[in-house]
Structure formats: C-alpha cells, structure tokens
Amino acid sequence: MQAFYEVMSCDSSSGSTTTPGVVRDFYLAAEEVQWNYAPSEKNLIKNTSLTEEGPVLRAEEGDILRVTFQNKANRSYSIHPHGLHYEKHSQGTSYEDGSDNPGSHVDPGKEFVYTWRVLEGPSSSDSPCIPYLYYSATDPVKDTNSGLVGPLLVCKRGALGEKGIQVEFFLLFSVMDENLSWYLNENIKLFGTAETDEEDENFVESNKMHAINGLMYGNLPGLEMCAGDNVMWYTFGLGTEADIHGVYFEGNTFKKQSTTRDTVSLFPHTTAALFMQPNNHGLFEVDCRTTDHFSAGMRHLYKVKPCKGKRTHAPHSDPTRIVKYYISAEEIEWDYSPTRDWELEKHNTNPEERCVSKAGRLIGSRYKKVVYREYTDETFKTQKAREEHLSILGPIIHGEVGEQILIVFKNKASRPYSITPHGVKASGSHTAVQPGENKENKSLTWDIPVSSGPTISDPNCITYAYFSSVDYIKDLFSGLLGPLVICRPGTLGQLLQNEIPTSLLWYLPQ
Ligand SMILES: [Cu+2]
C-alpha cells in the first residue's frame, strides 16, 4: 500500500524560515545480537530501560542531526527517520525513483553519514517534545522485525536539558514477528529442536512476540519514579494489522495533548507523548489491553516510590461528598439479537449462515452472561431503574472531582468477581469477592483526585470504564463492564437533571 507524492520547487523564495540551531552528531551502529524476550524466563506479572530499541536521538527545532551509521551486521541496512527533513541522499528508504539514494542500503562493514534537519518542531498544542521513530528501511518489514528501530525526539527550542521533566520513558508496543526476521533460519539452527517445523501453525504463532521494548511478561526493568515527579512517557506503535494497541496505565492518569486519560491508542508508526505526575505510589501495570496482546505478555510493571522532599498533589484531603452505589454482579440469560426482523430484512442470506442463528450445532444468539446491576439499598432487593440503551452494560457510575465513590458490591453470581475502575484512585478493588459475599463499605472506595478529572481542554465530564479484574479477559467477555463518568465540581447536578441552560433556549421569553 504505497504511493509517491511529489513536491516541486516552484518559487525560489520559498524555504525554511526556521532560525538555525546547532549540529548534533550521533554515532550509531547496526549490530547483530542474541536477544531474549523474557530474560528472567518467568512471568513476572503473575509472580507477584533501555532494551532492544536503539538509542534515543534528541534534537530541537532548527537543528541539524548528523548521524554516522556504521553497519556491523552482515547484510545491508539503513536509518530512516520520521518527522525530519532530508535530501534524497540521506532519506534511508529504498525505492526506485531514479534518484541517487546511497543512504538506503549501507553495506556490511561500511559507514554512511546521514544529515537530517528539524524544520518543524512541536506546535503550541503539542508537548515540549514530539516522539518519532527511526528504523532501517532497506526492507522496512524485515529490518524492523529483525530489531532495527529506535526513538527520536523533536523538541521545542530550549526544551532539551529543561529542568521541568525529571523522568523520561520510551515504550515501543509491537508484536515482533520473528517469522519475518532476516535471522529466522539462523534462530531455528541456534535455538530450535529437531522437531521444529517452519510450516507448523503453532510454530509460526509462537514466533510472534507480544513485546514492549522487546520484552514480555513483566521483564522490562527500570520503570521507576518518585511520586510527584514530572514524567514523560513517549509511546510508539510498530508492526502490522495485529498492532492495534489499547495501552493502559494502571494507578495514575496522564495528560495527552492537555486532556486527562489513563489509556492511549497506538497503531503502527503512530506515537503519543504522555505527561504524568504520579501521586499514587506503589507497583502498577502498564500494559496493552487488547485482550490477545494482554494474554500473550504485553505487560510490564512500573513503580512509583514515595521520595523525601517530593511534593505530591495532595490526593488525600477529605472528600467533598461521599456517593454510595449498591452494585451487584449477577448472572442472566442474554439475547444478542432479540428481534430478528431487521436482520432478516437486511441480509438476504441463508438463515443458517448467520451468527445469531440457532441451527445445527450453533448456540444462536442467547448466552448465559454475568452483568453489573444497581440496587436502591443494602438489601439488594430493588433494582434501580436503568437507562434502556445501556443494555448489557453496568449502571453509569457518576462522580465529581473531590468526591469519593463508595461501592457496596454484592456478588450474586456463582464465581468470584470484583469491581475495578479505570482513572480514579481505588482501594480494595482488586480483591475477588466470593459468590454470595458482600464487599462492605469503606473497603471499596474510589477517590477522585484532581488528576482524574477533566482539564480545561476536556468537556465537563470524561468517561472511564469499570470492570472485573479477577480474570480480566474472561470476566470481560462474560459481560462485566460498565461506564464511569467523572465530572468537574458542580457540573453533575446539571447533567443528571438534564437541565438546559436558558441561554440555549430561543423561545424562553415566549
Ligand atoms: Cu497491543
């Protein structure tokens, strides 16, 4: 899926207006190494930075990057940067457009000097530095799956060496496909057995390493910071259609382009800069919640330590109000398509082919599920009226910044479940509640610090989810999921009463 676009020089006066910066020299080599995706040979998540990625290249607006690349490997590679300006000579990608492009394939043992310019830095709505990728693009698919990829930061003038940011982390989310690596055959020889069969489906699947920075299952070291630090997380996506990443930071929220979030989506070759001021200390997961990736090990832990002399944004003042919710998990029979008229009308196909049809050995559209439901009081006898459109979803749980949500959770289902929120400061919510058990007051509290609420760039309310985390994937697919809405102080009353500001009514005077 490739096309060319051509930029011609039509007016001699056009050109960069950027004031010149400095020349930054970098010396990079491509080297062949033996890599281990899980060096501890353990799943460190259940037991309880810098890795495969290349070095970070940093530059400011107006700078020139001069990268001396030495190829110490045994085939031709290159370096191609995103986000920078280059002449053909230094582009580093390999395609036939008739121009001389020596940087596109640097032969083994050879050296090449790339010259790249930073014409455009971050805009006013960007963070002080924008993350980009650089990678070998002699054969971009095989080269990147072989490991040649690294992070590049393009910063505002004067942002480098700035005192404001204390900690930086670079996380590359990618299903590294070892089947597409140049070194597959060598790896089979080195690490395979007599039974290794390249055509075998399980073998092919076993070579897809669901990694963050080339490491899986909690093996990524060094993700440590102090509570109150100014932390930048630069996140990157790479790979194929499998690389749809729903990245989640447990325990602390971050700002992404001035909005509050605790998740970010990444696709191949997209990046995001996330600013976090962790005020919640402890050990938390940073992972990909795309269920397939999560279960295949795209999960690590980050640690927030309490440090002397660090000021955190007092997460613990008394709540302005305590809002109580009585929530149950209960098993029901669910029909995904109770009315069949629409389906029959629209799809003139054989009824037996439909996924909601109950023919032969198929289950049809009815399944046993487990759902969250809300009750009026601690007797759990009267269900609260529900908004019809929520259907299988749990009740909407609302809260304002400064408040505390107190959950009385009763497990009416037949196996252990929990209720765990995104985005807010929760205590006790990872504990599994046994069937028939009531999780009493005080043990399930969700505090809503300022860092969980909307910023001035957000709407009055922002949404998160709550879910059961006993077995995140199975609980989710069994039906346990609901919406959590966090609002600015003083805005929720309006929302709940559906009040319309009088300034928006044309005919009020009449
Ligand atoms: Cu993912």
Features:
510 residues; mainly beta; Immunoglobulin-like; six-stranded mixed β-sheet; five-stranded mixed β-sheet; binds copper (II) ion
Note down, in words, how this protein is organized.
This protein is mostly beta strands and 510 residues long. It has two domains: 23-305, Immunoglobulin-like (Sandwich); 322-334 and 363-497, Immunoglobulin-like. It contains seven helices and 29 strands. Strands 20, 21, 23, 25, 26 and 27 form a six-stranded mixed sheet that branches. A hairpin with a 2-residue loop joins β14 (254-256) and β15 (259-261). The termini are far apart. The model is unreliable at 47-51 and 498-502 (pLDDT under 50). The structure holds copper (II) ion. It is an enzyme of class 1 (oxidoreductase). Pfam families: Cu-oxidase_3 (PF07732).
Compose a concise summary of this entry:
The protein is mostly beta strands. It has helices at 140-146, 184-191, 201-206, 291-295, 341-346, 472-478, 492-497, and strands at 23-30, 57-60, 64-71, 80-81, 85-86, 111-117, 129-135, 149-155, 167-177, 208-212, 224-226, 231-238, 245-249, 254-256, 259-261, 263-266, 271-276, 282-288, 299-305, 322-335, 366-375, 397-400, 404-411, 420-421, 425-427, 438-439, 445-447, 461-467, 481-487.
Number of helices: 7
Overall mean pLDDT stands at 87
Largest sheet: 6 strands, mixed
Indicate the proportion of strand residues: 25-35%
| Helical coverage, percent range | under 10%
| Ligands, deduplicated | copper (II) ion
**How does the helix and strand content classify structurally?**
mainly beta
Spans where pLDDT lies below 50 across 5 or more residues: 47-51, 498-502
Return the domain count: 2
CATH architecture of the largest domain: Sandwich
N-end to C-end Cα span: 59 Å
* CATH topology-level name of the largest domain: Immunoglobulin-like
Strand tally: 29
Overall 3D geometry? Answer: globular
CATH superfamily of the largest domain: Cupredoxins -  blue copper proteins
Rg estimate, integer Å: 27 Å
Q: Give the oligomeric state of the chains in this entry, treating copies of one chain as homo and distinct chains as hetero.
A: single chain
CATH class of the largest domain: Mainly Beta
Main location: membrane
Domain Plastocyanin-like: 54-155
GO biological process, one term: iron ion transport
Organism: Poecilia mexicana
